[in-house]
Write a structure and sequence with these properties.
- By secondary structure, this protein is an alpha+beta fold.
- The protein has two domains: 138 residues, Fructose-1,6-Bisphosphatase, subunit A, domain 1 (Fructose-1,6-Bisphosphatase, Chain A, domain 1), CATH 3.30.540.10; 111 residues, D-Maltodextrin-Binding Protein, domain 2.
- The strands form two sheets. An eight-stranded mixed sheet has the order 2-1-3-4-5-6-7-8, sandwiched between helices.
- The chain starts with a helix and ends with a helix.
- The relative contact order is 0.13.
- Bound molecules: L-MYO-inositol-1-phosphate (LIP).
- L-MYO-inositol-1-phosphate binds next to strand 3.
Length: 262
Amino acid sequence: MQGSANLNLMIKAARKAGRSLVKDFREVENLQVSSKGPGDFVSKADREAERIIKEELLGGRPTYGWLGEETGGADGEDPTRRWIVDPLDGTTNFLHGLPHWAVSIALQHKGEIVAGVVYDPAKDEMFVAEKGAGAWLNDMRIRVSGRRHMIEAIFATGVPFGGRGTLPATLQDLARLMPVCAGVRRWGSAALDLAYVAAGRYDGYWERGINAWDMAAGMLLVREAGGFVSAIREGDDPLEKGAVIVGNGELFEGFRKIIRGE
Ligand code: LIP
């Protein structure tokens, strides 16, 4: 794919942060057996990855704004553009030595996501998309699945943990959806869940209570791969409300009706 200069900068930043995270991930696998556990070490790895990404992106585009999971938001001189970054999406997987986590970087222009990168360093899978230019995985064009029957479809979600308030709603969703589909997966990285829908691996995904940095890049991947994206509640902006549903064009309406309880 012939990406723009911005997309190339995002890919470079994601790879650089990915290298640092992979190095730390090997260490985390050793720390599982220690009594203190790898918690502090992982927080440091996460912050270091965001530092690397910020240095690359703001070094290359000093006037853009910033929203990062670790360092929060900052307006730039250019009020129309900002980076939205999750340096480590799937932190709990990382912490437990599970190789399913990603770097997520999006560029927003006038409120719209125009470029997105989701990079899975453990599998060296680089998912990228630019508005109007399609979605790609390691230089291969990707498309959402063509599956048409709910009973054959696999969906992904995130199940809230540690007593988070959206748990009852998600359990109700599961009770309605699971009897009519081929399965639901909960792999612990929203960015990768979205990238997998874009690549046709999952047929749809929904989640409540997530942040803009978890979903911004992945939402563009799904759109550019020919999929549908909306908020769970009619009329909401998913990025603002933190509740998103996506799917292939064949199944999206039916799937959304089930999740909305209609
Ligand atoms: C996590 C997600 C996960 C979701 C959690 C959380 P983090 O992001 O990607 O799938 O269920 O609510 O937001 O904290 O690892 O960047």
